[in-house]
Structure formats: structure tokens, C-alpha cells
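Sat 14:20. Reprocessing the chain from the morning session after the first attempt stalled halfway. Input below, unchanged.
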Amino acid sequence: MSMILLKNGRVFDGSKKPSFIGSVLVDEGKVLQVLAQNEALPEGTENLEVIDATNCWITPGFIDTHTHYDFELLVNPALSESVRHGVTTVVAGSCSITAIMAEAEDCSDIFTRVEGVPREQVLPILKDQKLWHRPKEYVAFLDDHPLGANVCSYIGHSDIRIAAMGIENSGYRKFCGGRSACDSRRNDIYERGVTRGNGRRFLGHVIHAN
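Finished this time. C-alpha cells:
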């Protein structure tokens, strides 16, 4: 990747300071220097690509903290609409729903029930592509997937409950031997999931037993 200068745009540096007209020098994908308007370039930057950012904003990448991209990642890993709007990191697994631990059909059902996603569209995709059942395997899948943005995910509470108890029993405490047994089983899956995921890509999802 060559050195790039984003020139004469309105710079928002993420520090809460007022924006200003300036330029941003990028080298090998990393911000090398932020320059005020008309500030001289550092030495050794004669051969670079200049992008005129006049009348544009130059900002740090946005982080979208609430998405339901769990299936979008499978069919459109570029996440082109988010990237087009300046999003560089997305958080999947919102509303306690993920497609990590449970079987493909169960994952399809919880998305259909809670988010109104058409089952006839989601289920074939999951049956074809979901080869993982643990966070570590899901991380490996994401690492090899051609993602257009950085991705991290919750491990959904509903996903954990269904993996531990089955979808038909997940709403009823009596089927798993009482509250303490349910909590123990779910917490064990959660702990193993976070640990075996090597702490990568996953955010803690607080579990409340109701």
C-alpha cells in the first residue's frame, strides 16, 4: 500500500476538539501524521497519492455497536453499505441472538421469532455455511472470511440457552433441573466459549437468569 495524503478536508480527530480544515497522511494503512491547513509535509513524502478531500469530512472509522449482521456476514462479508458510510468496525450478536453455539435450524428459528427474518431465506444459508459450534471455530471462520470491516460479536444469551437446553426447553427452568442447574450449564458454556475463543473478537454478554 502506498503513502496517501487526504488533503484539505474537514478533520474530526475523535478528541472532542473542534474540527478543522487540514490533511491526513496515511502510510501502509496507518495514520502517520495529521497536518493543519498549509502545514508542510514531512521529509521523504514526495512520492505519494493525493486525494482531494475539499468539502469532505475526514474522520476516524465509526464503530456500529448494534447490528444484526450475523447472517449478512455470510452472504455479503464486504458489508458494503456500512463501509460506504464510514463504519470500520461492527458489533454483531445484538439482542442476545447469535448463530454461534446452537444448531443451524435453532439459530434460524430464534432470528425468525425475534427479528422477523424470513426463515426460508436464513435456514438454507445456515445449513450450507454454518460448520462451527463453538466460538473458537467461529473466530477461525471470520479470520478466513473476506470481511470489509472489523467484526466482533457478543455470544448471545439465547444462543447459549438453546445450546445447553434445546430450543423447546430453553424457556422453562423445570427441564434443566432448576435454576442453579440451568445457571451452571449456561455459565459453563459461556466460560468455555470466551476462553476457547482466545479472547478474540468476542465481547462479554451479561447473563441474567429469568
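The chain has a mean pLDDT of 82.
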